[in-house]
Amino acid sequence: MSRPFASVRARATLAATLVVAVALVAAGTAVLLSLRSNLLGEAGTQAERSAREVATGLAFAKPYDDLPLDVDDRPVQVVDEEGRLVAASEDLERISGTGVDAVKPQPAATARDGGDDDDDAADAADAADDDDDHGESLEPGEIGARTTVSDGSATIDGDTEDYRFAAVPVETEDRGRLTVYAGAPLSAEHGAVNTALTVMLIGFPVLLAVVAWVTWLVTRRALRPVEGIRREMAAITASEDLARRVPVPDTHDEVARLASTTNETLTALESSVERQRRFVADASHELRSPIASLRTQLEVAAAHPELLDLDGAVEDTVRLQRLAADLLLLARLDAGERPADARVDLAALAREAAEGRRGVRVRAEEDVTVAGSRGQLERVLANLLDNAQRHARSAVEVSVRRDEGPHGAGGGGQAAVVAVADDGEGVPAADRERIFERFVRLDAARSRDDGGAGLGLAIARDVALRHGGTLTVRDTPAGGALFELRLPGA
Question: Helices marked H in 60-140 — which ranges?
Fold first, then answer.
């Protein structure tokens, strides 16, 4: 089954939106936590300030009625060492979070007479004792430096709110140790956090929508050249016109480099296809002549056996066989066939190739070996010798040596060099690359009777390149042609 289509624009937009969403959630959470922590700290500071103001009055032995217990309608409790509520805000109706639930001051005698109240007072006293165990030693008239903070709620004059309570101990001369509980409302903290949360819940989706929209527009603009390249490639595929090229945007970025590389690929493909077409056309043309000649001779022989030119028929058959072998080898080389990795002695190979040829002299150093295909290298030497004999006046010289210089594709290191020189007219400088093209014959070698199909030197260079070497031509000091084959030494 084919996978559903998903555009790059959609994936990029989704990825950008998800990344921004995660970042916004993380940042929003951090902001809310920081805001809540700061507001809680501010509420605790306000509660401590109120508690210490009341504790200051107690330290100076003020009566309970003169204490600032009803400032800003905040809950305040004053508890003695036995846990009895001795003073509280006037309109306090309910309180929790301070450890003392009483809201009305209890005289000492009443506290001793009541049963349940005695239990509550005892529990509060135990709590106060626990605080004293972890508290500090105070002198009469001294206020404790340590403040205990807790959260709770209180109802004042019918209004219930959450508060942060601060407990401050104070040592008095006539009433012993007292603890002042004062609360600061948390409504500001709740309101600020809720407001920030509401803004985030409304703003984050809007911001994500803007990010998605901007990303969609930006990616569309960035990918517009890619769509142009795709459309042009589709048109090239449909029309099979390899001369067309994709548009290259003037952006100097990855898309522009992609377009340039695509055009280079199309150029190479066009060249390869054109070369293949020329090869097929030239091969057909070269095959047509020996086949037509052989057919004519066979038809004449069929009608007049006494006129059969047997030598000509054999010669045309041999030419046809050699041409077919050349075409097959070129096809294998074009297909990327890798040469064998055998060790080949070039000196021995040169002597074998020159054996039986008139006017060919071999000068070779010993033990000049390369790694490759013996059959293909033998074909290279044979083609070079055929070409040299075809153009030489009287002599051809083959030299085999080792060279410490570079050997072409292989870079530096020891190279094996085979040079084939003739005493002919040489190759004009303008044609020294052209002669290595397939089916190319210079004007002086146009005769099919004296020359081949123009494939020998093309095959020789292709084999040299497949072996990591080079094949070049230049003039000899005497004016003839010097073909030099350089291969990596084994």
Answer: 108-113, 115-133
Residue 246 lies in a domain: no
- Taking the model in full, what pTM does it have? 0.52
CATH number of the domain enclosing 319: 1.10.287.130
Strands of 75-191, DSSP E = 76-80, 85-88, 92-96, 148-156, 159-171, 177-185
CATH number of the domain residue 394 falls in = 3.30.565.10
Helix (H, G, I), strand (E, B) or coil at 6: coil
Per-residue pLDDT reduced to its tens digit, 118-150: 454 445 445 444 444 445 788 888 998 899 999
User: What's the rounded Cα separation, in Å, for the pair 292 and 296?
Assistant: 6
Maximum CA extent, the chain: 160
* Cβ count near 181 (within 10 Å): 28
**To 5 degrees, how large is the angle CA 134–CA 138–CA 142?**
130
Instruction: Check residue 335 and report its DSSP letter.
Output: T
Domain stops at, among 334, 354, 385: 334
Considering only 248-252, 279-283, 317-321, 391-395, which range has the smallest mean pLDDT?
279-283
Give how far Cα 233 sits from Cα of 65, 117, 435, Å.
Answer: 95, 94, 35
| CB-based contact 99:124 (threshold 8 Å) | yes
Q: Which amino acid is residue 430, in one-letter code?
A: A
Tokens of 481: 């042609």
Domain assignment present for 355: yes
Over the stretch 426-451, which tens digit does the pLDDT of each residue have?
898 888 898 888 877 775 444 444 45
Number of structural domains found in the chain = 3
Tokens of 217: 């527009």
Please report the pLDDT score of residue 293 as a whole number: 80
Alpha helices by DSSP H, 240-345:
254-303, 310-334
- For residue 179, CA distances in Å to 3, 73, 100, 275, 418 come to 74, 19, 11, 103, 111
Question: What does the block give as tokens for 467?
Answer: 């072996």
The pLDDT tens digits of the residues spanning 13-49 come to 999 999 999 999 999 999 999 999 999 999 999 999 9
